Amino acid sequence: MNQPDVFAWDAPSLAEACRGRLRIGAAVNTWDLDEASPACAAIRRQFDILTLENESKPVNVQPEEGRFVFDKLDRFTDFGQKNGITLRGHTLVWHSQVPGWLFEGEDGAPASKEQLLSRMQAHIGTVVSRYRGKIATWDVLNEVLRDEGGLRESKWYKIAGRDYIPAAFQAAHEADPDARLLINDYNLESSEAKADTMAALVEELLRAGTPVGGIGLQMHLSLYTDLELLKKNVRKLAALRAFAPDLRLEVTELDVSCYRFDDTAEDLLWTDALETAFREKYAALFRFYGELADEGTLDTVVFWGLSDAVSWLNGFPRRHKNYPLLIGRGWRVKPAFYDVLALAGNKEAQS
Ligand code: XIL
Question: Is position 253 annotated as part of the catalytic site?
Answer without folding.
Answer: yes
